[in-house]
Amino acid sequence: MLTKNQIAQRIAKEVKDGYYVNLGIGIPTLVANFVRDDIEVEFQSENGILGMGPFPIEGQEDADLINAGKQTITALPGASFFDSALSFSMIRGQHVDLTILGAMEVAQNGDIANWKIPGKMVKGMGGAMDLVASAENIIVAMMHTNKAGASKLLTRCSLPLTGVNCVTKIVTNLAVLDIKDNAFHLKERAPGVTVDMIREATEGDLVVEGTIPEMLL
After folding, report:
1. Is position 136 annotated as part of the catalytic site?
2. pTM of this prediction?
3. What is the distance between the terminal CA atoms of the chain, rounded to a whole angstrom?
4. Predicted confidence (pLDDT) per residue in 38-52, tens digit
């Protein structure tokens, strides 16, 4: 099974030259550490930075330079800083080419739940709803199952929704899957993981066509 860093490393392969990319809280923030050096990518954080770089070296952190998850970050040459109003104008105006988010649940029709567990304290929606409502290319980074071993890739989400019919691709610790035609389509499997293991861990409809290759990191 993949580690969180390896999930981010695999997602980084989906980032293309010239992309503007928003990184959500959690595993997505790690993606900036793995983007190829020979392409130019602008990472945007909803709290007001365009040109976000990888995490700083230990001992070189700047407490005033953080991402939306309040983690210390670096800024690449030419980076710009702005208020939340301008940041969300970029998002709502569909100027972001790729949005990478974490999730607690994803349904086979592309619904996503990633902001609230009923009964547990939550600070608020944050920018999640704006991101899923405005983006056309959404990749989710998540664990395939929860701590109890239950699937997080479902026929229908049980938690409050963040967005509907919006997720296009999922990368988990077990697999890479596309969402289309109201089903999860298995595209790659993690090293050492079998198709049967993925079937067992997926509650929603899983489509397996041909031989499924092992993913390359």
Report:
1. no
2. 0.93
3. 13
4. 999 999 998 999 999
